[in-house]
Amino acid sequence: MLSNEQTASAPGLLQRVDPRVKVVGVAALVVVATLLRGIEALAVLYVIGITLAALSGIPVRRLARVWLVAPLFSAAILIPAALNIVTPGSPVLVLRASNPVLTVTDAGLMVAGRMMLRVAVCVSLVLLLTATTRPERLFKGLRALGVPVVFVMLLGMMERYLWVLARAAEEIHLAKVSRSITRGSIRQEQAWVAAGMGSLFRRTHTLGHEVYLAMISRGYTGEVHLLNER
Amino acid sequence: MHIPDGYLSPQTYVPAYGVMLPLWWRASVKLKKTLRNRQVPILALGAAFSFVIMMFNVPIPGGTTGHAVGGVLVAILLGPWAAVVAVTLALVVQALMFGDGGITALGANCLNMAVVMPFVGWGVYRLIASGTACPGRSNALADSRRQLVGAAVGGYVGLNAAALSTAVMFGIQPLIAHDAAGRALYCPFGLRLAIPVMCGEHLLLLGFVEAVVTGLVVAYLQKVEPSLLPGEVTSPTATGRLSPAARIGIVVGALVVMSPLGLYLPARFGAGTAWGEWSVDEIAKLSGYVPSGLRHAGSTWKAPMPGYATQSAEYVIAGIIGVAVVVLLAFGLRTLIWRRKDEADPAVDAPVNIT
User: Fold this and answer.
1) How far apart are CA A15 and CA A22, in angstroms?
2) Closest to B286 in 3D by CA, of B273, B295, B297
3) Which of B21, B103, B121, B196 lies at a 20 to 30 A Cα distance from A98?
4) Which residues of chain B from 129 to 158 reach within 8 Å of chain A, CB to CB?
5) How many residue pairs bridge chain A and chain B with CB atoms within 8 Å of each other?
6) What residues does B184 pair with on adjacent strands?
7) Secondary structure of B52-80 in the HEC alphabet?
8) Nearest 10 degrees: CA dihedral of B121, B125, B131, B136?
9) Mean pLDDT across chain B, nearest whole number?
10) Are residues A22 and A58 in the same domain?
11) Between the ranges A1-5, B140-144, B189-193, where is the mean pLDDT highest?
12) What is the distance in angstroms between the Cα of B324 and the nearest Cα belonging to chain A?
């Protein structure tokens, strides 16, 4: 997420665009990607996504992590789809000739390839949105889609305190590890994890109270006004 | 269990959004009524907590780790509608910021993990821990061990219910969205593959992770901060209503009386024996031969009332006998297992809700 902050503040094409346009545009493009059937059309959309990312100054390493890892994950899941037991068709590569016959079919390759490409396109498009928009502007952009104010406020608060809680969880874990010499049994370790979660919830609860007190002492009356940014 | 973009056809994800929109609206209306102003920050933090829970890796036997979704835990601690909102928020952030779960599939993911899971898990928890699944009618959660077991079982059942609905969503894709040649456009695995794989891994492995996480956190909170757990004052007949046992008895009685429908409906529609429950003769007729293993298996156990009955009156009697046996077994189990330490039920006083 830190890298998101860096790219979102860098000068680039998409960073200058209004977040509302980006949210609606990316959502529309993702829907289009799910409706496309041809591999060529999906490839064109993929190239468009990568071009926009390059123009917005998103570093290639960042891009590669997303548009290589996501399709590879999908490939692992989709490999069985290319086999003849899932998608019948004319065999392209015979893996096992005797009964049960296992071949990679041409129809199977088409199906798996199309799925992988679609996943890659969707993930790259969402990356475009999140890597070029700061979180508070992104959530404010959601208002334009009609998301109620309460949800947007909750999203903003949640995103902020996410890091606080993640840090607290990290510290709980470090505290335990730095006081241990060796790992205990499975039961003991599970009990530690559970105690960490319970303790985290207590901290969440206390933090919630304190945040509320801070809010009312600064004039919160129940109405939400989002700051205007420019 | 997060469904990525591209795995669901528009015929699936658009109706999922359609179902979620009134549910989200209902959740926010419900919360506006029951959630005080001071609880709004708690809800935001509950969502962050749910998110962070998904980052905790619990060690499981075998040396690997698994992670829980935490939807049932939030439902037990803050209520099911609050869990809907909290898990939705966590899923939104995961989809937008981390690419975990697609944007078009967000409605479907919320349906599985923010609605099916918390409600089913919470309902099971209430059934076990207070004898009734209706909100506002619970009696004392007298036995804290019952609360613990309820939380763990609720977590297991909730996660598996969500796994089943996810598997169904995956599995119907080849049926409803394929190109002219019949090839799947989206998720290529049909119900026959999706359901066994998804439900299998959640029934055998991940469900236990969720159960362990939920149960252990509730146990920890019972020891350290019981005010965070829901608990109501005991008064079984204070409102003059029927006790939970009587209510359940009425429902079961009605079902037993209606049981002849189970004979009438198959006869009316000409249906035969249930799939996979054929006798040896029926198998011979269906497939032309009897597998050697099956031939002997049918004679292992001679049931006292084979096939329940053929007439309505006997069917009802069989139902009554069956219910009586089940109830006796349940009481027996309760006496043997739950009262082992011979402790009196402590009444839970000081009703505390999340304030």
Assistant:
1) 9
2) B273
3) B196
4) none
5) 209
6) B178
7) HHCCCCEECCCCCEECCCCHHHHHHHHCH
8) -80
9) 72
10) yes
11) B189-193
12) 39
- Residue B283 sits at φ, ψ, to 5 deg, of -65, -40
User: Do residues A107 and B183 lie in contact, with contact meaning Cβ atoms separated by under 8 Å?
Assistant: yes
List chain A residues with pLDDT less than 70: 1-3, 84, 222, 224, 226-230
Domain of A117 in residue numbering reads as 2-141
**Is residue A227 domain-resident?**
no
- pLDDT per position as a tens digit, B2-27: 888 888 888 889 999 999 999 988 88
Residues of CATH 1.10.1760.20 domain(s) within chain B?
Answer: 10-237
CB contact under 8 A, B52 and A112: no
Enter the DSSP assignment of A101.
P
Q: Residue A129 carries which side chain, given as an amino acid letter?
A: L
CA angle (A30 as vertex; A24, A31 as ends), nearest 5: 90
Q: Is A78 part of any domain?
A: yes
Residue B17 identity (one-letter amino acid): Y
pTM: 0.68
| Interchain CB distance below 8 Å, B41 and A129 | no
Instruction: Answer yes or no: do A150 and B40 touch at CB < 8 A.
Output: yes
Which 3 state secondary structure label does DSSP give A190? helix
Read off the tokens for B348.
Answer: 């839970």
What tokens appear for B106 in the block? 């967000």
The band of B153, judged by pLDDT with boundaries at 50, 70 and 90, is: very high
Nearest-CA distance B294 → chain A (Å)? 24
Does one domain contain both A48 and A126?
yes
* pLDDT tens, position by position, B274-294: 666 666 676 677 667 666 666
Which neighbouring-strand residues pair with A102?
Answer: A96
**How do residues B195-205 score in pLDDT, each as one tens digit?**
888 888 788 88
Tell which of A141, A159, A184 closes a domain.
Answer: A141
- Total residue length of chain B: 355
B66 vs B163, more confident? B163
- Amino acid symbol at A81: A
Q: Which residues of A touch B47 (CB under 8 A)?
A: 154, 158
Amino acid at B114: A
Tokens (6 digits) for B198: 């998804």
CB of A104 within 8 Å of a chain B CB? The answer is: no
CB contact under 8 A, A162 and B38: no
Q: Across the strands, what pairs with B115?
A: none
Name chain B contacts of A42, Cβ cutoff 8 Å: none
CB contact under 8 Å between B28 and A34, yes or no, is no
**CATH annotation of B10-237:** 1.10.1760.20
pLDDT at B171 over 60: yes
Query: For residue B294, what are the contacts with CB-CB under 8 A and spacing of at least 6?
Result: B280, B283
C-alpha pair distances (Å), B322 with each of B329, B331, B355: 11, 14, 46
Q: What is the pLDDT of residue B334?
A: 62
